[in-house]
Amino acid sequence: MKRLFRIELIKIKSNASFWVLTSLHVGIVLLVILSGKMFLKSISLNGESFSKLVDPSNIPIYQFPDIWHNITYVAGYLKFILAIYVIISITSEISYSTLRQNIMNGLSRADFIKSKLFLVVLLSLASTLFIFIAGLVIGMLSTPDIQLHYLIKYSGFVPAYFLLLTAYLIFALLIGLLIKRTGLAMGLMFLYTIIIEPIVVLRIDVAWVKGLFPIKAINNLIHMPFGKYALREVQDYVSLKETAIVLLYMVLFIYLINLLLRKRDL
Amino acid sequence: MQPENHPNTNNLNNVVTTNGLTKYYGVIKAVDKLTLSIPEKSVFGILGPNGSGKTTTLGMLLDVINPTSGSYSWFGKKPDKETRQTIGSILETPAFYPYLSAVDNLKIVAEIKAIGYENIHEVLQITGLYDRRNSAFSTFSLGMKQRLALASALLCDPLVMILDEPTNGLDPRGIAEIRELIRDIAARGKTIILASHLLDEVQKVCTHFAVLNKGQLLHSGPVNETKLDEQRLEMAAENMTNLKTVLESFPGTKKIETTGDTITITLPGAIQIGEVSRFVFERGIFITHLVSLKKSLETQFLEILNEPA
Q: Which of A44-58, A120-134, B256-270, B291-305 has the lowest mean pLDDT?
């Protein structure tokens, strides 16, 4: 087990696309999160008639406990940056024939999948830790009166973010292994995530059926929080049923990855 | 102990045995009912034209290609990943992570083979890559890539080495070095399986060979097991006309050909070369040139390919 982990570490240590994409992920997530206040200010300046009730620039998006829900929701949308790296990682193993050479050298197919799952979990853990620290710091700086129960409330979204990212990266792993070609796999992943599935889901009327589609199911782990600032009702908790659907999808993805690798001539 | 029914599968002196190994790609038969044994400590050449199924066969033995039917065994048992850990192998082009250095690439191989890093420097020195050990694989020339592949195959001090076209893309010096290296490794009691379409290569290093064509095994056996029913000698003397006349009177001469400034005679296999030499000397002719022409593997190979199946 430790061996597989070390192998993956040697591979990423001097891989340029790994460092570029992970830095990009950190940078863009920070940028998007920190521009929230600017965005709200611009609304309050331009939209005189926006609301007489609340000044948008006073909305407490950075305060405990809202920060946890807001930051994980926004970061969840930026999961594709890490998914790009996962796709590059798996498709390059195929195009450089290193997957085949690794099996010839004495890795089992199951070992290879495990090493890639290590990579997925490593990326998700690191990103979650980063989100946790960012949330903690921003929350500390923005909350006038920090109380422990407020700090803890909504912090369940942090592990939910970990699950969301892990599930999506395993999905990317499956797409990469299936399509084999880097560009094509990335294109298809984007197309499916932002166009194909959303359109299909839009045409379905029954809410619970929508939640059965993989991307929708993954995104459902963290529902959109911002409605509450317009006094609309939002789901401000992680639903057990929705978590179970995602876990089932993860099992299915891993099963398919196994099947694909076992049946295929390398 | 479970009794083995098939005579091939329990032979401890064989490193690999295959039994009706078959691979179809769609309707194309890449390998057709291949039954083959590779003896221990042999340098086993697999010969065949391009597309004859050499790489597919080796791919199946290394578990990267799923056979359509048939079976194979390593060291008399069903292979697993531990078996592959003791085999050093190269299939087709060298496969490494292009952005990693030679050393990092070999570290990955070492981790996969569950061995330490202590052999890395040694194999890089053997293959002449030590000075470039920290350069990325992508900066290597084809010859260097080929040598790194050899270094990685040597890394675990393997029991068996599988080399598929190991001299592809190498210059004459590189080819000679690889040949030396293969001989060295074989001398250490390792089994080497060498696939090649270069007959010369196989003849120079192999002890056994098999010929594949269109996925079928045409021949398998030791290299020097030539049918010794006849031999050919190339000769020359100061007076060629006299030499020819004398040779014509030598008992057993089957054929005499004059090519340029030498004479080639065909004799029965049983005749000693010394007999010919003495016969000619006793008749007052001094030989200036005498070469025994061995039947080359190329001739054998072409004969085998041309034999009606």
A: A44-58
